[in-house]
Specification:
alpha/beta, Rossmann fold, 3 domains, 4-stranded parallel sheet, 3-stranded antiparallel sheet, 18 helices
């Protein structure tokens, strides 16, 4: 089978979550685990830590299959990659051959990483049908990582990881910073609060922190916003801007005509807004509730007890690249002017 990625060298704040997943995949019964959340929250790092765990390796040995779905937009694409990993020859019976091969392996752990590109597409139904077929295999445990907050239909997902992954606590964020930058000053907590517990943002900024103080980085962030949160390269793992833009350009967002407009207005409100107040605040915004569902679905915003809120790095990106305007901005101003 294909080689699995190594565990991350620097990893903080997820011990309880990793331990609970390890318990699930090491019990006698098979399991189906979704790792959901916004881009940069650490889903792949959690999955890599789990599959490199000593107990997990002892149970599954070489029968851990890690498949990157990045760039795949159909169920057929996923199936073809699986066939290649399993050395199954291509043909009209690929699905049956792959399922038969997986079943013959015995106790197997399959990880589908970045599944959102195929699932959040026009081929969603076929992707869910493929997941359902995989989930039916009696000897297969399934772990998927996906941007967003919605679990694919057709699979009985484990309750343990049903909710999206939350940002790091300030203490865990500080540990992550120190592990990489190895230096700090009195403004490190202010900087970390601006990054709102997003591991990718903290990691990228901490690498710069090896040369630049948190005070100077905070000043740079206030000036250049999320554009400063990157290392060499321009992909989702080295640039926070690229990671956020992937979510904004997702199929779910492009299919909703007003979701981006709602996001831009929401990003003016650090504490967010009560969802029940949206028709009153933005009366001209058509389909506001559908737009809320879209933002939550792709994890550009979170719904906490009925309040819709975007993480700070997402707000900063949107304010710089997709600033609010037009009727919605006027309605927002009018509402808060009379309070």
């Amino acid at each position: 089978l294909a080689e699995i990625p190594p565990a991350p060298v620097v990893f903080h704040g997820r011990t309880n979550l990793v331990d609970s997943i390890v318990e699930l995949v090491c019990r006698s019964a098979t399991c189906r685990i979704p790792l959901l959340g916004p881009g940069g929250i650490g889903k792949t790092s959690i999955a890599a830590t789990v599959i490199n765990n000593r107990r997990v390796k002892a149970k599954y040995g070489r029968r851990i299959l890690f498949v990157s779905c990045e760039g795949l937009v159909t169920a057929e694409g996923i199936l073809n990659v699986l066939a290649t990993c399993l050395h199954v020859p291509p043909g009209s019976e690929s699905l049956r051959s792959v399922l038969t091969c997986l079943l013959s392996q015995g106790c197997t752990l399959l990880v589908l990483d970045n599944l959102e590109t195929a699932w959040d597409s026009s081929d969603k139904v076929n992707v869910e049908q493929l997941l359902g077929k995989l989930a039916e295999l009696s000897s297969l445990s399934l772990l998927v990582t996906m941007r967003g907050a919605v679990r694919p239909a057709g699979v009985d997902w484990a309750d343990t990881c049903a909710d999206p992954i939350t940002p790091l606590s300030l203490d865990a964020a500080r540990q992550l910073w120190i592990s990489i930058a190895r230096r700090h000053d009195n403004n490190v907590d202010r900087l970390l609060n601006r990054l709102d517990g997003l591991p990718l943002a903290i990691t990228l900024m901490a690498h710069q922190g090896q040369l630049v103080s948190p005070t100077d980085l905070l000043e740079a962030y206030d000036s250049d916003r999320t554009a400063v949160v990157e290392t060499h390269g321009r992909d989702r793992l080295t640039s926070l801007d690229v990671s956020i833009r992937l979510s904004i350009n997702s199929h779910t967002m492009t299919q909703n005509g007003t979701a981006a407009q709602l996001l831009s207005v929401l990003c003016l409100l650090p504490e967010g807004v009560m969802i029940s107040d949206l028709p009153k605040i933005l009366p001209m915004l058509k389909g506001a509730r559908k737009s809320v569902l879209a933002l939550v679905a792709v994890a550009l915003a979170v719904n906490v007890n009925g309040r819709l809120r975007a993480l700070s790095p997402i707000r900063d990106f949107v304010m710089q690249h997709l600033p609010p305007g037009g009727i919605a901005l006027g309605e927002l101003r009018a509402h808060y002017m009379v309070l």
